Amino acid sequence: MRVIKYKEAIPNMECQCGCTQTVKPGNKFIQGHNVRINNPSKRIDVRKKISKANKGRKLSKEFKRKCSERMKGKESFFKYKKHSEETKCKMSEFKKGKYMGPNSPNWRGGCNLYWHSKAWDLFSQDKCEVCGMTNEEHLERKGVRLSMHCDGKRYKNLERIFWTTTCEYGCHQKLDALN
Q: What is the value of pTM for the model shown?
């Protein structure tokens, strides 16, 4: 005669919270899922309704101030953690090309390093067109390469006549003062 174990006698059941996961024999819920039934705000359908009601809601300045006061002195939850190399690569791939030109958070309606770097790639010279300082001298003295100056603030107009290769601080500022 074969002895039937207790676990074999009870058929597999789904969790009563509605998540469709299989529970251990003899249980009605997966551990922690009974809260979803007993507390309405934890139920999936109720959470969706709450989320929909809060969309577009503006928080008052008083509420924001209270939240700020409550968080002061507390450490960030991510303080001693680090992203894995795989995660860093994924974040990098996601951001590539998305924050350039007008999509950049630093965009100021035309004057942006995006246009200056494009102009540098197209029209850059080996020396300042105003004083004659070479790019190597400028790197040695100032620590940065020569820059591109746009005449008339027509940044999007990538024609050679609007762009001048200049020293980053001296000649560029003089030309800016003239415009």
A: 0.38
Q: Cα 81 vs. chain centroid, distance in angstroms?
A: 18
Is the Cβ–Cβ distance between 123 and 163 less than 8 Å?
A: yes
Residue 47 CA to residue 153 CA, distance in Å, equals: 51
- Element housing 147 (H / E): strand 147-150
Residue 40's contacts (CB-CB under 8 Å, 6 or more residues apart) are: 46
User: Using CA atoms, how far apart are residues 28 and 18, in angstroms rounded to an integer?
Assistant: 11
Q: Where are the beta strands (DSSP E) in 2-118?
A: 13-14, 22-23
Give 138-147 pLDDT, tens digit per residue. 888 888 888 8
- Distance separating the N- and C-terminal Cα atoms of the chain: 102
